[in-house]
Design goal:
- By secondary structure, the protein is α+β, with helices and mostly antiparallel strands.
- The chain is 53% helix and 17% strand.
- It is built from eleven helices and eleven strands.
- The longest helix has 51 residues.
Length: 321
């Protein structure tokens, strides 16, 4: 299950007991993933979501608010991009009171009209405001975050969470609402829709905490630690590999120089101190300078040993010329 889906299901595992919060939550759902559809003489408002547990959650809220008289219907499921999409249908005439209470419709002398702005009266208090954001999060949020199965497997390098809507004004209102909690996002247009996105991982954690996805906050914290550990290990491995390559390259250069001397004037033509390090290198071609010092029977410093190898390379270069 994706990180985004798991965080939404986590929210739905906690019941909403307060009526004002329940209405605010439903309003957030309608605003973020609601669609209007006409079938014959009937008009429906539908909640469209890929979270199958949302139907039961909404049904429980509506039953507590309005009793057993009205029950939403689940439309046919269909697939988009390998995700199963669920539709919860609300016939306007049948659910008139609910739609009025959540601010989806208004009645005036001109008759009924749909309201596409956030009903500020529903979110005057702190808890209903949070409940509204929960509804919006479940209805419109997506995330590219993937959790690592272990410390060695990479599941991505960045953190990205976004709200998608066809209404630019709705996302503007939402961004202002989130800004009250220091959750700052940016809006851009993508094809036929608009996106409010957050990329800062600490801000994403604040957002998850705001909507009550506390386990997801912990999971994301663990992911941050895992990625940092993996990156640290990778840097260390790369450093070790670079040192090994450097050691091998230096050793090959020294061995080639020694072989050049052997094939031209012979090792016996060299001073005794150079003969000793030449034999030592030929016998231990894969070892670093530090390892050669441990194997050597003569007292040398690392710089002294390196200096003698440079002399051998210089002699070989002269012979080749």
């Amino acid at each position: 299950m994706s990180f985004s889906r798991e965080s939404k299901e986590e929210i739905l595992r906690t019941d909403i007991e307060d009526d004002a919060c329940a209405l605010a939550f439903m309003s957030g759902l309608f605003r973020s993933c609601g669609e209007i559809e006409k079938s014959g003489s009937k008009i429906f408002v539908k909640i469209v979501s890929d979270v199958d547990k949302l139907f039961g959650f909404c049904q429980k809220l509506i039953k507590r608010l309005y009793g057993d008289e009205i029950q939403p219907e689940v439309g046919e499921n269909y697939n988009i991009n390998k995700n199963t999409i669920y539709e919860i249908s609300f016939e306007v005439e049948k659910f008139k009171q609910l739609l009025l209470d959540v601010g989806v419709i208004d009645y005036s002398t001109d008759g009924m009209k749909f309201n596409f702005e956030i009903d500020k009266n529903l979110i005057l208090e702190e808890e209903p405001r949070r409940a509204f954001i929960k509804g919006v999060y479940i209805g419109a949020s997506t995330s590219s975050i993937k959790l690592s199965s272990d410390t060695t497997t990479s599941c991505g390098s960045g953190y990205h969470m976004e709200f998608v809507s066809q209404s630019h004004n709705f996302l503007l209102e939402l961004s202002e609402l989130l800004a009250e909690y220091n959750i700052i996002g940016k809006i851009f247009e993508r094809k036929n829709s608009y996106v409010l996105y957050v990329k800062d991982v600490n801000t994403i954690q604040d957002l998850l905490a705001l909507v009550g996805a506390n386990q997801s906050v912990l999971d994301l914290s663990n992911e941050i630690v895992t990625r940092e550990l993996r990156n640290k290990v990778n840097r260390q491995v790369n450093c070790i590999n670079a040192n090994i390559n450097k050691t091998v390259e230096a050793s090959m250069k020294q061995v080639n120089a020694i072989n050049t001397i052997i094939n031209t004037v012979g090792l016996e033509s060299l001073p005794e101190d150079l003969q000793e390090v030449a034999v030592l290198r030929l016998a231990n071609q894969e070892e670093s300078l530090d390892e050669l010092l441990k194997l050597s029977t003569i007292k040398l410093t690392r710089s002294g040993l390196n200096h003698r190898f440079r002399k051998l390379i210089k002699i070989a270069d002269t012979l080749e010329e």
